[in-house]
Amino acid sequence: MSINTPPITPQQYEVxxxxxxxxxxxxxxxxxxxxxxxxxxxxxxxxxxxxxxGGALYMMYPNLAGKFGSDLVIS
Length: 75
What we know:
75 residues; mainly alpha; elongated; 0% strand
């Protein structure tokens, strides 16, 4: 803090930084079944979407190491 600025009160600090007391109260709440199921379903959906996108990209990337589509040696 610089010398020219006056110190702020805790109430002003909460207003400036997003209300720490309210965030602390929300953090104290117990994880309900509904919230747990919602988060777990979102996690499964996110993981499966990531796997699907990764698989699609892997299928589209060409692999020319001696398989179909590689250079042919004619002697």
